[in-house]
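Below is a filled-in request sheet from our internal design queue. Each sheet records the structural input a requester submitted and the sequence that came back. We keep these sheets so that new team members can see what a complete request looks like end to end.

REQUESTER: design group, bay 2
PRIORITY: normal
MODE: inverse folding
CHAIN LENGTH: 393
BACKBONE (tokenized):
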């Protein structure tokens, strides 16, 4: 059985075709510059196939993808594709799990699209395109927010007028839920139990920390949108909103422009003035660049702040897990974070920590909390959900 995982953006569509018998990726790739001009890359069997072709909309991208899967002999017929799972960023409090797409689901998605205006409408274009191209194949929607729906009210409410929540849905929703769920399931497999306290650190360009007890999310660092929480590649993380008016006035910018600056020009990029990419920051840090050192210290400090907060919230922790681009690939950041947690009895083995992109236990045997690197796999999680829904349909 083969399942496609889809992550559709406003001008891009990423896909992974997965053989669910062994969970191996058969092919993956990206269609880019949709609605501008168009190009695509398909990787399969150790080969990389790249082409420039006009992509007027998401339907074009999906039709060409399906045609190429046949042309490149990745599948013999499209009947081999038995399900398509779509990543959707925001499910609000309407969706607390993955669902099969039907008219009712599309209506609900439409009703909440303004909560993630840059993402949800684009995700929906991907769904519509597959419904058209493969009308007999079930589609599912997997929400970035669903895993966080187990947070209690005291956790997800902001201390703002209650009516804002009632009237406008202002509350914490979180993000990266599919990744945190994958890390939770993998931790359960490693520990061979579903009873554990886990602090899951998804640290990529976007970053979020989640407190998990017995496989359920208790709290997470992202908020109403992914702008909140720790400092990220280009996002500020938590700030005092009162700083907005003087910046708007002095920079002569409106609120949308300032929010854009907080999303795209802040974080590691904004503070260091060097780059949003942690590899560049590490190079400058190792060369003794002062702004890089300041930025690195702040970045590590913000991650530590959240881990410490969640350690207290969970009344201890069995496992701290690092994942995503930085979490999986930066021994330096893992070491700096864990050094900051020495007072909690966290100790890492520097030799074991010297790994990239591989699952490993990196703490010492006498560490009070086990520290793992666990490469995330959101595409596989989407495909697994899709398979299980199709089987039970
Ligand atoms: P996204 O949030 O876009 O999904 P990723 O999880 O792919 O991000 O993470 C991308 C980031 O991972 C890059 O911006 C870079 O900072 C970081 N990264 C990738 N490789 C390394 C590495 N070897 N060392 C340090 N950081 C790395």
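RETURNED SEQUENCE:
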């Amino acid at each position: 059985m083969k399942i496609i995982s889809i992550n559709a953006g406003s001008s891009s569509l990423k896909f992974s075709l997965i053989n669910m018998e062994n969970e191996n990726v058969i092919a993956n790739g990206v269609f880019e510059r949709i609605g501008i001009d168009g190009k695509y890359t398909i990787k399969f069997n150790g080969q990389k196939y790249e082409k420039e072709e006009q992509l007027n909309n998401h339907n074009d991208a999906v039709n060409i993808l399906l045609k190429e899967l046949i042309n490149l002999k990745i599948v013999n017929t499209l009947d081999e594709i038995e399900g398509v799972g779509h990543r959707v960023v925001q499910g609000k409090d309407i969706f607390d799990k993955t669902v099969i797409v039907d008219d009712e689901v599309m209506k609900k998605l439409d009703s909440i699209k303004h909560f993630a205006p840059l993402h949800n409408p684009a995700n929906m274009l991907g769904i519509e395109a597959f419904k058209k191209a493969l009308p007999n194949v079930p589609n599912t929607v997997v929400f970035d927010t669903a895993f966080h729906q187990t947070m209690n009210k005291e956790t997800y409410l902001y201390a703002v007028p209650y009516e804002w929540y009632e009237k406008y849905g202002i509350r914490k929703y979180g993000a990266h839920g599919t990744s945190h769920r994958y890390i939770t399931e993998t931790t359960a497999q490693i520990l061979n139990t579903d009873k554990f306290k886990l602090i899951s650190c998804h640290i990529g360009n976007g970053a979020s920390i989640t407190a998990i007890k017995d496989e359920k999310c208790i709290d997470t660092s992202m908020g109403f949108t992914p702008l909140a929480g720790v400092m990220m590649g280009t996002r500020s993380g938590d700030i005092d909103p009162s700083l907005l008016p003087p910046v708007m006035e002095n920079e002569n910018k409106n609120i949308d422009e300032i929010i854009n600056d907080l999303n795209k020009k802040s974080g590691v990029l904004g503070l260091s003035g060097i780059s949003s990419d942690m590899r560049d920051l590490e190079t400058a840090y190792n060369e003794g660049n002062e702004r890089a050192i300041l930025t690195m210290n702040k970045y590590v400090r913000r991650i530590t702040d959240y881990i410490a907060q969640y350690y207290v919230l969970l009344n201890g922790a069995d496992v701290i897990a690092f994942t995503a681009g930085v979490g999986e690939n930066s021994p330096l950041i893992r070491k700096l974070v864990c050094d900051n947690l020495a007072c909690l009895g966290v100790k890492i083995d520097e030799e074991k920590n010297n790994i990239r992109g591989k699952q490993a236990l990196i703490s010492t045997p006498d560490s009070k909390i086990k520290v793992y690197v666990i490469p995330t796999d959101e595409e596989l999680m989407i495909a697994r959900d899709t398979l299980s829904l199709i089987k039970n349909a």
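SHEET NOTES:
- The longest helix spans residues 290-313.
- The chain has a mean pLDDT of 97.
FILED BY: M.R.
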